[in-house]
Amino acid sequence: MRDIKVMKALKPHFNKNLIYTRLGYRRGFTKLDRSEESRIDSIIDTTVKALDIMAAYRIVDILNVNSPLITLENGIQLKGERLSKLLNGCHQALIMFATGGQKVMDLIKNLQIENRLSDAVVVDAAASEITDSALDVVMSHVAHNIRYLGHVLTKMRFSPGYGDFDITQQAILYGLLEAEKFGVLLNEAYMLTPEKSVFAIAGIGKMSTGGIDD
Predict the structure, then answer these.
(1) Half-sphere exposure of 112 (CA within 13 A, CB side)
(2) Predicted model pTM
């Protein structure tokens, strides 16, 4: 397998509207007064400062896609019809993860202890969205690096727990990236610690094949 690449101290661009969506607000539909919006934006800024985002990725060969099974190098198998569709026509897979670190989780816990529950909810939503945005950074970086090889990356990525890509397969991605070496833990319920951690997979195909599903 190819070496694991690490990206530290990431400050990803993120869509603030998506944080509001996670909070249940809909721009143009949900009325939000300026003071409340200012409060939320201030908490988002605090969240950004508390995050210590790092990411890691590796590229592995795809040996076969026979929906719903995907066989990677060394005989490792993933399962999912939608994932199979995403990886159809791809010869490699990009396996990646990002974590927001423990400090932001401590912030959430302290806010809960102080009974500032609404603030804790905002931090939770912001941390989730911003950490996920770090995977955009990974994908952009990899897409740039493989372009000179005549390869292209799928626009979409799937995370365990999405659709029929069962959460139990989180353990496979976790192992491929040796995430325990980066301080990320996986429990028996396939949940991650720090909680603001996310794994995903995307596909790599050849431009000459006429494109790949995205």
Answers:
(1) 9
(2) 0.92
**Which SS3 state, helix, strand or coil, does residue 209 take?**
helix
* Every domain of the chain and the residues it spans: 5-209
Hunting for tokens 């939320």 — which residue is that?
40
H or E element at residue 29: none
Per residue in 85-138, pLDDT (tens digit) is 999 999 999 999 999 999 999 999 999 999 999 999 999 999 999 999 999 999
Is 197 within 8 Å of 185 (Cβ atoms)?
no
Which CATH class for the 5-209 domain? alpha beta
**Burial group, residue 127, by CB count within 10 angstroms (0-12, 13-18, 19+):** buried
On the CB side of 166, CA atoms within 13 Å amount to 10
